[in-house]
Specification:
By secondary structure, the chain is mostly helical. The protein is 77% helix and 0% strand.
Length: 319
């Protein structure tokens, strides 16, 4: 996120998204061929891969790059990595993965955190100070949507939802195709529309990129896409989707730190509160099983101590 944000002023978002995605997909496909992975060989496999490419490739990377133009790398990363909240709900509905009480508490914290991040600060402070009412908001839904999406956080939220749906789709994709090869093809196919959009709407987006900028794009392509995507979706095809996707709660921590160090990004007090609530929510969702087991063990231990205390014979001094 920090590397992409650093090169955004030198290029255009669709070009950046496409050049990050398509070459990374080729690298994943080459790695899959070297490992002896099988190519998709059924129309069902290609159909699922195409849907996967549209949602997790074109939409996710497109929303992410456009959102980065309007928001910081650290804050954008927090919004992107709120996707475990949506994954938890969809995995509960589609695959009967249990959320549990701590998971629902985490979802509630996440909703509050995202609200603090996605809404303008003056709206929130004005509402609680009684200086803002619903009548002060734009009556036109289109105007309201334009006002929110111009900030960038809501574009990042759409990117997060696209990634969440993609995380769910990999389960269906893996039933008809090798997950590593499917990941590579979805990046290649998903990158093509982004480059087409760049050719139509962006004029020579490569002309101002210097050596450091190409280095940032290469970093985002090789490590941020090829390696990260390949490993993540291979594990997503086999593991618990909610817990796996929630491991990304570490990403915004790094993004906020490096965004401050390298880009000088500073968040407001309300945004820091939103960040804290969001990270806590993702942690609760990720660790809900372990935390629930600890609470049960602690409760059982207390019951056993109380039972043993009551069953002990009285001492002579007590008599």
């Amino acid at each position: 996120m920090v590397a992409m944000k650093g090169v955004i002023p030198e290029t255009e978002p669709f070009f950046l998204a496409g050049t990050r995605l398509l070459p990374a997909g080729i690298l994943v496909l080459l790695a899959g061929l070297w490992m002896g992975r099988s190519q998709p060989n059924s129309w069902q496999g290609w159909a699922w891969i195409s849907l996967f490419a549209l949602v997790d490739g074109t939409l996710f990377q497109g929303f992410l790059a456009q959102g980065l133009v309007r928001t910081g790398a650290g804050l954008g990363s927090v919004m992107i990595d709120s996707q475990p909240l949506a994954v938890a709900l969809m995995a509960r509905w589609l695959f009967a993965e249990q959320i549990g009480p701590l998971g629902w508490i985490g979802l509630a914290f996440g909703l509050m955190g995202i609200s603090l991040l996605g809404l303008p600060d003056h709206w929130i402070t004005g509402f609680f100070q009684g200086q803002l009412s619903w009548q002060d908001l734009p009556a036109d839904g289109l105007a309201l949507g334009r006002l929110l999406f111009d900030q960038g956080e809501w574009l990042m939220l759409l990117a997060a939802l696209s990634m969440a749906v993609g995380t769910i789709l990999i389960r269906y994709v893996a039933r008809h195709a090798d997950p590593v090869m499917a990941t590579g093809w979805h990046m290649v196919i998903g990158g093509v529309p982004l480059l087409v959009l760049s050719g139509v709407y962006e004029s020579q987006p490569w002309s101002q990129i210097d050596g450091a900028g190409w280095g940032a794009i290469a970093y985002s392509t090789i490590l941020g896409s090829a390696l990260a995507y390949g490993v993540f979706f291979y594990l997503a095809s086999k593991g618990n989707l909610t817990s796996l996707s929630a491991l990304t709660f570490l990403t915004p921590v790094f993004a906020l730190t490096f965004g401050n160090l390298f880009l000088g990004e500073v968040l407001s007090l309300l945004q820091w509160l939103g960040v804290s609530l969001t990270i806590v929510s993702i942690y609760l969702i990720n660790q809900r099983d372990a935390l629930t087991a600890r609470l049960k063990n602690l409760s059982q231990t207390q019951i056993e101590i109380q039972a043993s205390t009551k069953s002990e014979p009285p001492l002579e001094s007590d008599l």
